[in-house]
């Protein structure tokens, strides 16, 4: 396939940790809200569903599109903050023989903390953010950087807030095709598609390019994705 070039204008990320303790009543409410939220997601977020065989999963008890309560100013401890400006060259387009996803591109941003101004035990995401091609979905050949947890903690009561912005440009140099999905995830492994049993994906945008604009003259997709969510567990 012809080469595709993705230029990320910026990657901003801030991860905060705060303590959370839930009563039995609160936990029951959370579980009910999770069930309702998942039903709404499956009904509304058709952009993250491919031919009715992909199920979109939120993290913990949070509706990842609308998020939980905003993190109060001054609350929580900063775990990581970074600003990355990077270029990625994509020279492979995933092949799915006999599959309708042929001609679409799927990729994952593996978040890292390049501006390491915060030393935190258990945080393994120091370095440059990585982009993983969807070829791993087909053959399971996941890059090493996609198999290392970004952050681990033994505190089961902890809750997290994440702020993320991805801006970039994808240039089309071959036959007509479209962006299929963009995933950003906190996980020890880039799990096989579709993620029917793995709750690690915390952001998913896809389908009919709701996050992109297409320049037919330059043949480029330009995207700008903002993610700002609290109470991730």
Q: What characteristics describe this protein?
A:
Jelly Rolls; mainly beta; single chain; four-stranded mixed β-sheet; 233 residues
How does the SSE layout of this entry go?
Layout: E1 4-19, H1 24-44, E2 77-90, E3 104-110, E4 130-133, H2 135-139, E5 158-171, E6 178-185, E7 201-206, E8 212-215, E9 220-232
Question: What report would you give on this structure?
Answer:
The chain has 233 residues and is mainly beta. It has one domain (4-232): Jelly Rolls, CATH 2.60.120. 11% of the residues lie in helices and 37% in strands.
Q: What CATH architecture label applies?
A: Sandwich
Question: How many separate helices?
Answer: 2
Order of helices and strands: EHEEEHEEEEE
Distance between the termini: 40 Å
Strand coverage percent: 35-45%
Number of strand elements: 9
Report the average pLDDT across residues. 53
Helix content: 10-25%
Q: Which runs of at least 5 residues are low in confidence (pLDDT < 50)?
A: 1-15, 19-25, 27-66, 90-96, 99-104, 134-139, 186-209
As a whole number of angstroms, the C-alpha radius of gyration is 18 Å
- Spatial arrangement of strands, main beta sheet: 2-1-5-9-8
The oligomerization state is single chain
Structural class: mainly beta
Q: Any idea of the CATH topology?
A: Jelly Rolls
CATH class: Mainly Beta
